[in-house]
Amino acid sequence: MRFTLEVWTQASRDEEGHFERYDVDGIDPDASFLEMLDELNARLAAEGKRTIAFDSDCREGICGMCSLTIDGQPHGPNQVTTCQTFMRDFEDGATIRVEPFRSGAFPVVRDLVTDRSALDRIVQAGGYVTTKTGPKPDPNAAPVPPAVQQKVMDAAACIGCGACVAACPNGAAMLFTGAKVTHFNLLPQGQPERASRARSLVLAMDAEGFGGCTNYGECARVCPQEIPLDVIGMLNREYRRGARREDDTVGTRT
Amino acid sequence: MPAHDVLIIGAGLAGQRAALAAAQAGATVAVLSKVHPVRSHSVAAAGGINAAIAVEDDWRSHAYDTVKGSDFLGDQDAIEVMCAEAPAEVLHLEHIGVTFHRDETGRLDLRAFGGASINRTAYVADITGQAILHVLYEQLLRFGDRIDRYEEWFTTSLIVDDGGCAGVVARDVRSGAMEVFAAKSVILACGGAGQCFKPTTNGLICTGDGMALAYRAGAPLMDMEMVQYHPTTLVENGFLITEGARGEGAHLLNADGERFMERYAPSKRELASRDVVSRAEQTEIDEGRGVGPDGRGIYLDITVVPRRRTLEALREIVNIGRDFAGVDITREPIVIRPGQHYVMGGVRTDVHGRTPLDGLYAAGEVACVSVHGGNRLGANSLLDTLIFGRRAGEHAAARAAGTRMPRVSRAPLHDDARRIEAILARPAGAGRRVSEIKEELGTTMNRHVAVFRDEGGLRTALDVVRRLREEAESAAVDDRGTVFNQDVLGAIELGCLLDCAEAMVVSALERRESRGAQFRTDFPRRDDAEWLKHITITRDGDGAPRIGYAPVTITRWEPEERRY
Amino acid sequence: MREFWSSSIGKKIAVGISGAILVAYLVLHMVGNLNALYGAGDGDARVDDYAHWLREFGEPLLPHAFVLWVVRVVLLCALVVHVTGIVQLRRRAAAARGPHKAKPIGRSLASRTMVVTGVLVLAFVVFHILQFTTLTIDVTPLREGAVYANLYWAFQKWYFVLIYVLGVCAIAFHLRHGIWSAAQTLGYVRPNRDRAIRSAATWGSIVIAAGFLSIPVCFWTGVLGAPA
User: Is residue C228 one of the residues assigned to a domain?
Assistant: First the structure.
């Protein structure tokens, strides 16, 4: 198969970027999108030209590192990570636009590589359980009903890729934050800090410059782990409950 | 110059667990990772973590299964420690938010796994590694005031001073800037070296950096010939299909539709230890009963597992089967074959994670304690990383309390900077490309240092590895810039891979017997009289690998014949 | 309270609640308007009586048209909160998104046009007030208190009918996304209710629109005859 790629090229964070055109042919239809980029890079290198920088690691959809926006859709046309997107899903001869995940909160490091540490700073505000050292309670003493466990697991499946942010017209990180809050606020050991957790994470989320949610729902349409919009409803509920209290926020408690 | 009590290289499960333990013990901690911590390869671990939590279980049973699984090469004192401490660690994980699977009554569910005499594997669908890694990272963020994270920093060398490890030199991947880090204790947690093989289940980052760093600093590597081939990797691309599938009841079938494991392991069948299953599969393939387009595969039949259960507990495999093999695993079998997965060998350590080099620790896949001996049981690796990560962190913190901060000069930084400049200055087109050398290394290792080995094949492999090392000296990189230069890192990683590969082949040649994952067709029997010992590889003054031996610690279980 | 307003979720909750107040008014207004469907009466249209009743409610205890003015003040406040909140959220979104806009992946037309329909609704409301409340747009005969007659004459003109149809359609679109969005923001949507709430939003918008549109359409098509 052959393609024309328009790839975002940016030398460093503070420099301007632009789209660069490349023609690539002889691509195996079963090659993944990243394998196609590898092939392109190999040919560029052989010609002594500048190669395209992009993030990747596990190549199997679990590490959350690959972060390409393909033809305007984060990760690509199917609801899977870029590394699991195959060239057979594109039309032969198509022109494909390749960009990094776009968000004001994800500065571009180089070409298609972005800095997603804003998501970490949200988690740092309280996306965890505060424990003391010492013997831990027997998990079987606090049984978790299967329905709850399923919900928690669905939320905990988040791989932190940031596609939700890249798909949101408002640049919001609600699906990510909602997943964290849903995960911890439903567990028995997450109950003591339930109210302040939602509040702290939302404060941090806003402070990082993410936008607000107006319920477009694009985030859930691109999430490769299929995290449901319900986590946003949960976050809204938990925030409302937490907003009434004047507790210390979790982040200041060690 | 950053100076910390405990410096940890690698932020996978072992590294993060060590950081948490050291921080909770009051030490100042730095974690250096060449990728963002949650992208570490631990995230891909699927099946589960072993612990004797069930009321009817006993850690001694777990320990015996592990000793037997290791083909009696494992050090039993270390194995006892790991198995005895496992239940507390799993409880700790559950408490900090790992969403272990629960059964219909809401209680912790335990699944069956290879080589285990009783169900004892706690799991999170088939993304156990992801679940634990993310929750640990969240804890690390919680201790943000005590743990300094240097994310996307590549460690280029260990600094050895006065016979002890005093710190490291590392490069910021984003900007290319280099820095010297002083530390009272250094813990290696860099993971395995799967990229020596092609295909492998390991991600691109698994390039044996830690093993090479330790080796070059004079610490011994141990059991490097013990390389695990996982029985079920997808033939299309080498992706891992978790052992959990067999744990749920999936069957292995040959071209005759026969469930051949009945013949090789009448008792445990598909859930025998991995080396036994891989060898069985390879034998079926070699004897002409393989399946798939080139006859080099075996059927993994998951259709026998109730569909609902598959969709609940094997989600990732459903996705992988659909996306990569175009198969609905609930309706038809997928074609798999043995693929490189894990390195039992590594940097030699004691039960506290200490290497013979003062101040240097190691934990996780990079280390060899040895708890896995000749073969690792499934779901024991997650356990190994957490138990010895924690122990290394605690011990390193305690050691730091009684040690002065070493004074480190910036000379090693200049050495490494010069090395990198030399790489960048290599003329283009003069030598082979880094990717080509890596490809040849991978296919060579996968042909001659795989499930079945012999002297001829190993010697060929050694020649190739040595030739590739020379070629690597002149391999040019494409990107000569400083910002986010992945190519120059690739060249450095290639050097690490070649060091590890050499150690693996030399050890495999030295061990003239078959034990665990090493099966030599020219020495097919296990020989306890001669070979019940570890093989160590230490770098000589002039850079050549020197072979040594270390005894196997036996506490309760005398070696016996291994039958499944 | 300050923290609540300055947080993105808090602000959106305020937008949702103020929107709910506005929708509640719309429902009451729509139902009240249906009195026009009773016809001209004998010079004593029911809708005229209804309009008088609204102004006389609570007399002599409460001043003339007290209830009406209370409602008007509440609506004005709700409107200010609603518009201010959305304007601030849009500004934050523009900064958060950066220069590269998000390609629509599956978002509904209603959700994509909220600002457009919102502005149209606001313009329409201003027009409507100028026509039937302040009686300023007196292209057709308008007389204080003669509600049925005012409506009849206005809706003989095709262009007024068109304006009202467009205005009400804008309302319907705005509500279709707005109702569900408010429910989600307030945390009322749960997996087992999601379908039902989406359905309620769609059908609610249709019913409200149909209720409003029945008036101009009935006058225009002659179903409702001339005043007595």
Answer: no
pLDDT digits (tens, 9 = 90+) for B85-144: 999 999 999 999 999 999 888 889 999 998 999 999 999 988 999 999 999 999 999 999
Q: Is the pLDDT of residue A220 over 80?
A: yes
**What digits encode the pLDDT tens for the residues C182-211?**
999 999 999 999 999 999 999 999 999 999
Give the strand pairing for B334-343 and B346-348. unpaired
Count of structural domains within chain B: 3
Q: What does each C-alpha distance from B281 to A66, B412, B432, B494, B513 come to in angstroms? A: 34, 48, 36, 31, 21
Q: Give every CB contact of residue A49 below 8 A, 6+ residues apart in sequence.
A: none
pLDDT in tens, A130-178: 866 567 778 887 888 888 888 999 999 999 999 999 999 999 999 999 9
pTM greater than the 0.90 cutoff: yes
SS3 C108: coil
Q: How many interface pairs between A and B have CB atoms less than 8 angstroms apart?
A: 164
SS3 C211: helix
Q: Does B246 participate in catalysis according to the annotation? A: yes
CB A219 within 8 A of CB A175: yes
Range of weakest confidence among B324-328, B470-474, B532-536: B324-328
The alpha helices in A29-103, defined as continuous H runs, are 33-46
Same domain, B448 and B501: yes
| pLDDT tens-digit readout, B414-451 | 999 999 999 999 988 778 989 999 999 999 999 999 99
| Mean pLDDT score, A8-26 | 94
Let me know whether B207 and B267 are in one domain.
no
| CATH class of segment(s) A3-113 | alpha beta
Residues of A with Cβ-Cβ distance to B144 under 8 angstroms: 124
Percent above pLDDT 70 for chain C: 100
Which tokens belong to A150? 């399923």
pLDDT at A244: 66
CATH architecture of A116-252: Orthogonal Bundle (1.10)
Task: Give the single-character DSSP code of B182.
Answer: E
Residue C116 located in a structural domain: yes
Which CATH number characterizes residue B291's domain?
Answer: 3.90.700.10
- Touch between C and A (at least 3 CB pairs under 8 Å): yes
CB contact under 8 A, C105 and A73: yes
Touching partners of C (3+ C-beta pairs < 8 Å): A
Say yes or no: A86 contacts chain C, CB-CB below 8 A.
no
**More confident of the two residues B240 and C80:** C80
Burial category of B388 from C-beta neighbours within 10 Å (exposed 0-12, middle 13-18, buried 19 and up):
buried
Which carries the bigger pLDDT value, residue B146 or residue B163?
A: B146
Structural domains of chain C, count: 1
Which DSSP symbol is given to B7?
E
Scanning the structure block, which residue is given the tokens 């406040």? C77
Domain that holds residue B510: 411-527
Q: Which of A105, A169, A229 sits opposite C102 (nearest CB)?
A: A169
* Structural domain spans, chain A: 3-113, 116-252
* A119 in contact with C, Cβ within 8 Å: no
Tokens of C219: 């006058």
State residue A132's pLDDT score. 65
- Here the ipTM equals 0.90
- Determine the angle formed by the axes of helices A230-243 and A146-156, rounding to 10 degrees: 100
- Chain B: give the shortest CA distance to residue A117, in Å: 9
Please indicate, yes or no, whether residues B54 and B188 belong to a single structural domain of this protein: yes
| Chain C interface, best mutation among A151, A213, A215, A226, by max C CB count within 10 A | A215
**CA C89 to CA C5: how far, in whole Å?**
11
Last residue of a domain, one of B319, B338, B357: B338
Q: Is B432 a catalytic residue?
A: no
Closest alpha carbon to B262 in B277, B274, B245: B277
